[in-house]
Amino acid sequence: MIDGTEIRVRRPAQGRNDRDKFISGKNKQNAVKSVVVTDGEGRVLWCSPAQPARCADITHARQSGLVRLLAGGPAVEILADAGYQGLGVQTGGRVVTPPHRKFKKNAPAWYEQIYERQRKAHSARRNRVEHAIAHLKHGRALARHLGRRNHMSHTVQAIADLLSHQQNADLTSAQQM
Fold this sequence. Notes:
This protein is of the alpha/beta class. Helix content is 40%, strand content 16%. A hairpin with a 5-residue loop joins strand 2 (31-38) and strand 3 (44-47). The two termini are 28 Å apart. The mean pLDDT is 80.
């Protein structure tokens, strides 16, 4: 499963050239974005370096090399949200996104029922990646970062590594019992 997350950061100083690139279009706040990949159990497998939140999720996945990795990797199903629509074609059908809405206006009642059922089923299946992101942000270091933005990538990667190590240790101890 794959999803992007935004982490709030301090606003760059007035007069800096790159001040606007940290403003998120979705939340209208200063943030950096990172992409998280988890397995079916919600264990963190990979976390991208943090980049300014101005770019879309799919653009961030392309820039971090995730699309090339998925396209050349094993044939597995990867669940993603609507922010990654179009990635399925680039990865040979490996990335599965929620169904596209065929009717913008005046949709028949039968279509609305089917669409909602498909959308909810997809959302329920990708629920684990949301929990993994919540675990990443649980440690307050990523809830709102007050340090330097230059070190944010290292902080995100370190916390993701620690969480992944902890989850693997928990899995190993559970299998030994």
